[in-house]
Amino acid sequence: MNSRLGFLNLLFLVAISTACATDNTIEITGPGVEHSGESPPVSIVESRSCFTGAFENYESWLTRLAESSAGFNRSKFEKRISKKQFESAKSELNCQRFLYEVDGVTVVGYSVHPAAQIGPFPVVLYNRGGNGPHARINRASLFNHIFPLADSGYFVIASQYRGSGFRREGLDTGEDEFGGKDVDDVLALIDLIDHSPVADASRIGMFGWSRGAIMSFLAATRTDRLAAIVVGGAPTDILRELEVRPEMERVFEARIPNYSDDKVVSLEERSVLYWAEKLPASTPILILHGQSDSNVTVNSALDLAAELQLQGIPSRLVIYENGTHALLEYKRQVNAEVFNWFEEKLD
Known about the structure:
By secondary structure, the chain is α/β, with parallel strands linked by helices. Helices cover 32% and strands 21% of the residues.
């Protein structure tokens, strides 16, 4: 264990392993709620329900998945996401996929909130992991990461980030910069939150996993609107992580502008340990990490917790024994930690 933790007073837990119509607004209104009519400064290109096309019903969704992947295992998939779960989500959640413009670039976004309840709901701004089209938000990840939060009474909004693989003739969809101008895509969602009648703009949390944690830390240095942050599998010193996963250099070379000119500066700019003092001192941070994470070493979480202690930033660190990068084996425990954190901090 990292020796820097010897002086920490933070709460440190080890989880034991025994256990398509379109228009120019986002359709995120709820029953009994009317929009003020004021337009947000961020331009909305179009919006539609997530439950359209092949995703309109469970059978057509699974048929599409089987057609697109020769190795699709229906029985295994049904254990992960059942027909009952699908129908429950479709009837109980308002899920919108929308296009919005940031600095002339068109980006895909998602918003989800309870359909039958009247808001405003506390907000969770979700930042996905991955790069480019890899690990982008799809129908399955909606169920895994976004729907559970919305089902717990939150207005969840997420950016796919520019350069995610979405293409449409006549639109500039930008390039992924892995923590460059694409951070603007995240911050622009706050403008949409401010103009949503079902979002409580005074209670905003941010949740980022893996690369999404990088986006969360960078965004947090540029806004004072966040009441709480949750990160999981967070790379906090990418230079050090590159020694463990040198293959990631291909990702950085392809996505970070001018990377070859000075890669040290480029990676330090995306590594929170080099500028943690810029984080808002009053915003508490929950850090989740798998002890056996092979994508991002557990030292990233340990050193971040130590640095936050030095900076006087409130935090909580949870390390899951034998946990992997996505912590899917601890899904129930992770959800409980996240829900409890936001319930307490966004109260």
